[in-house]
Every structure is written in C-alpha cells, then in structure tokens.
Write a structure and sequence with these properties.
This protein has nine helices and no strands. With 207 residues, it is mainly α. Helices cover 67% and strands 0% of the residues. The protein binds adenosine-5'-diphosphate (ADP) and magnesium ion (MG). The site of adenosine-5'-diphosphate has 23 residues, from α3, α5 and α9.
C-alpha cells in the first residue's frame, strides 16, 4: 500500500461530505451535552480544508497534511479545532520525509496524532471525547499487518456507540455530569466520520 497525496485528498473530501451530510446531527449531539456548535464548527473548517488543498499540487503527504492541520486549526474553532489541528499536524510530522507511506507508517502517524490530541486535551480514553474513537481504532490498526477496512469501520462504529455509556469528565460534556450519560459524544461522532472515510479510501487499496 502507498497512501499518496491523492489518497489524502480523497480522505479529506469523503470526510467533509460525511460532515456536511450530518452537520445537523452533530449539532443535535452537541446541543444535548455541549453548546450546539460542533456541526457548524466542523462543517466550516473541513469545507475550507478541501477548498485550500484540492486544486493545489503537493510533493509529499506530509505537505498536504500540514496544510490541512493549519486550516482546521484556524477555521474549526471550539475545543475540537485545536484538537483535530494537532492530530493532523502530528500526522504530518510523523510522515515527514517519506515518499512512500505504507500501512505501518500510516498506523504510526495516527498513533502520533492520537497522542498529540491526548496531550493537547489533557485527556485519556474513558472521558467521553474523540479519544474514545481514536484509541480503539489505533489499537486495532496496530494489531494488523495490512489494512482491514471493514474491521476498522466496525471498531469505529462500536466505539462511537460506547461513548453513550460514559460519563463525560473532559470538555463541555463534563458540566452535564451524570446527565451526559445516554448521549453519543459529538467529537466521537465526527471522528467516526473521519475513520469511516479513511476505511473507504483503504478499501481502494491506496495508490
Ligand atoms: P466546544 O466544546 O468548545 O464547543 P466543539 O463543540 O467543536 O467544541 O467540540 C466538542 C468535542 O470536543 C467534544 O465532543 C469532545 O469530543 C471534544 N473535546 C472537548 N474537550 C476535550 C478534551 N479536553 N480532550 C479531548 N477531546 C475534547
Ligand atoms: Mg460545542
């Protein structure tokens, strides 16, 4: 597998399509345990990330990921903007200097992204945040030697569902204490869109 610049573009566009289609749903989830802006935040930032990168030529995967990171960081806003921005920046740093990105490289980059978000958010798994989707996905990918798109999709789907049962201890959800139980975390849901888009790209086998 070689995860190419075009694969990153495809990943970003598929993610953005899912976010635009589910913008109101993300808003609804964030109205229940937050301030209701997650759909608007993500839709604005990812639309802009597609606009900035789509027609531009990039020599390396690290270069386009850096552009995505900067755009997401400045345009998404809220708590999630800096978190997703950090994740993409770490992905970029992890893949810097590579002309070919294999499955193991991509997995390591996503692990670096996850660790970056944990540091930035001072958060860990089990706190009802996007970390609760990223962590099981990365753990699953590390167990495999090659891309398993269907498995990845399943893991991400069950992880997002499981956030319902968790009481939030980070982010705005934490203000809702016990009342946060029973609702899916909005950031976990948007991360599900990111990973189901990635699974779709991996299904194509990379370039
Ligand atoms: P805000 O909470 O500032 O309105 P958003 O609504 O865009 O920002 O994003 C909310 C999501 O961000 C949450 O659902 C959660 O997944 C994630 N989040 C918030 N704070 C943290 C944190 N400290 N660590 C990890 N993720 C967090
Ligand atoms: Mg919000």
């Amino acid at each position: 597998m070689n995860f190419s610049v075009n694969n990153v573009k495809e990943w970003l566009k598929k993610t953005n399509n899912l976010i635009q289609e589910n913008k109101n749903y993300l808003t609804k989830l964030d109205q229940a345990i937050g301030d209701g802006d997650h759909g608007i935040n993500m839709a604005r930032g990812f639309d802009e990330a597609v606009n900035v990168t789509d027609d531009k030529q990039y020599d390396t995967v690290a270069d386009i990921l850096k552009d995505i990171a900067m755009t997401v960081m400045s345009k998404v806003g809220g708590a999630s903007g800096p978190l997703y921005g950090t994740a993409f920046l770490r992905l970029s740093l992890s893949l810097k200097g590579k002309t070919e990105v294999g499955y193991a490289d991509l997995t390591k980059a996503l692990e670096d992204g996850l660790n970056g978000m944990k540091q930035r958010g001072r958060s860990d798994a089990g706190e009802k945040t996007l970390v609760d989707v990223w962590e099981p996905v990365v753990t699953f990918m590390k167990k495999k030697d090659a891309a398993d798109a269907d498995g990845l999709m399943e893991i991400a789907k069950s992880a997002v569902e499981k956030t319902k049962d968790i009481m939030a201890t980070k982010g705005r959800g934490a203000y809702f204490k016990e009342k946060s139980v029973g609702n899916i975390d909005p950031g976990a849901m948007s991360s599900f869109y990111l990973f189901s888009a990635l699974a779709e790209v991996l299904k194509g086998g990379g370039e």
